[in-house]
Structure to design on (157 residues):
């Protein structure tokens, strides 16, 4: 009977296995005024991701780049914390406007920059949830600013 014990322990595996490291992410979501958005990117550090972003902002299709820092939370090797305070920055341009121009007018946004904070969840299985609130800044026949709220879900791999 005792001879079977090592085999049973090997089959049972570790009591608490570390989650796999993550290197990339994809997500989609909704928000206001960013009605629909998509994100794809990679983790350049355990707590920092750099992303390509695109979305539909009321009457405008914009694309650009962003970076998200996963602050606070317990360190996990090769991945951001399970629960994190997000600090986010982005810059996007209107894809329907060529050549690119930061100036807008009326319902057309030429480009924008934004900052946000929020909550991030990354499960051991790779499910990703981000809830953000922040501000966007743009040029619209003068300086313009407004709120930015988004909720996105996806997969980290």
């Amino acid at each position: 009977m005792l001879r079977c014990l090592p085999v049973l322990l090997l089959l049972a595996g570790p009591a608490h296995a570390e989650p796999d490291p993550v290197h990339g992410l994809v997500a989609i979501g909704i928000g206001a005024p960013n009605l629909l958005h998509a994100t794809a990117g990679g983790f350049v550090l355990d707590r920092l991701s750099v992303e390509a972003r695109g979305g539909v902002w009321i009457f405008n299709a914009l694309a650009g780049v962003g970076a998200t820092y996963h602050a606070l939370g317990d360190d996990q090797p090769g991945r951001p914390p399970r629960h994190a305070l997000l600090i986010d920055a982005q810059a996007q341009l209107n894809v329907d406007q060529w050549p690119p121009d930061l100036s807008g007018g009326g319902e057309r946004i030429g480009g924008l920059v934004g900052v946000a904070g929020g909550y991030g969840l990354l499960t051991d299985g790779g499910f990703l949830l981000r809830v953000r609130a922040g501000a966007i800044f743009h040029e619209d026949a003068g300086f313009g600013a407004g709120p930015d709220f988004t909720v996105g879900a996806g997969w980290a791999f």
Observations:
- Residues 5-12 form the longest helix (8 residues).
- Strands lie at 24-32, 34-45, 48-57, 60-71, 83-94, 103-104, 111-122, 127-140, 143-156.
